Amino acid sequence: MPDIADALFEDQKGTVISIDVTAGSKAEIFPAGYNEWRKSIGCKVTAPALEGRANKAIIKLIAETFDLPASSISIQSGAASSQKRVLIAGVSKNDLLLLLQS
To answer: Is the dihedral of CA 73, 58, 21, 36 positive or negative?
Structure first.
């Protein structure tokens, strides 16, 4: 059983999630599996990876998944990559882990 906690990192502002994004997917899904090798959580969005549309969709999807305001979520690194680090401000690693596992 993979340990998804390895994809979460404590930060001064909250918790950072390492994600692998599939843009242009048929459905929006988060979490969409776990990549044990990259230690990242899958994220699928229907928006294309064009002009920041996928990044906006990622923020919206994660906000909806965790029932948080979109303003508390930001892409910390990887804005132009399928591998991203997303900051969830004001949420501890343990709280986020509980939300992911429920």
So the answer is: positive
**What band does 71 get if pLDDT is binned at 50, 70 and 90?**
very high
Calpha distance 8→16 (Å, rounded): 6
What does 48-91 look like in DSSP terms, one character per residue? -SSTTHHHHHHHHHHHHHHT--GGGEEEEE-TTSSEEEEEEET-
Mean pLDDT of 40-62: 96
Q: 102 near 96, Cβ under 8 Å?
A: no
Helix (H, G, I), strand (E, B) or coil at 13: coil
Domain boundaries, the chain: 4-101
Q: Measure Cα distances from 38 to 41, 42, 66, 97 in Å.
A: 9, 10, 23, 18
Q: Please say whether the beta carbons of 35 and 58 come within 8 A.
A: no
- Amino acid, single-letter form, for residue 66: F
**Which CATH code is given to the segment(s) 4-101?**
3.30.1200.10
